[in-house]
Amino acid sequence: MMKLHDLIEIVDDENSFLAFVEALKKDRENAIALEKKNPSSPHDSDAGGWENVTIESFLEAAHAWAIDSDFGASQGLSSDNIWKKMATFLYCGKIYE
To answer: pLDDT-derived band of residue 67, with 50, 70 and 90 as boundaries?
Structure first.
């Protein structure tokens, strides 16, 4: 199974974007299951590496990443591939602090 950050690299159309969204959903479900078995510290990311575990914090982080990075432009993300841009936006909802 590919890691999420690797999947982002191959997102280039509607189908690959939807495959990424499905993988992100499964990643979250796995993190929830791991947390139930062995809760992590409330001051760290959860067992699946999720920094933002509520929809509010997830969207806030994705939005902050988009603002801070000029929607990835300052990180070299091409504006030619909107599907990859949106996948990166969602991924940053998971990891951006």
So the answer is: very high
**Is residue 45 within 8 Å of 94, Cβ to Cβ?**
no
Concatenating the DSSP letter of every residue in 60-93 gives HHHHHHHHHTTTTGGGT--TT-HHHHHHHHHHHH
Q: Quote the longest CA-to-CA distance of the chain.
A: 42
Task: Give 72: exposed, middle or buried? Use CB within 10 Å, 0-12, 13-18, 19+.
Answer: middle
Do the beta carbons of residue 92 and residue 86 sit within 8 Å? Answer: no
Please, what is the angle between helix 82-95 and helix 14-37, to 10°? 10
Taking the mean position of all CA atoms in its chain, how far away is CA 58?
9
Q: Is the pTM of this model over 0.85?
A: yes
Q: What is the pLDDT of residue 19?
A: 97
* Mean pLDDT for the chain overall: 92
CA distance 44 to 19: 28
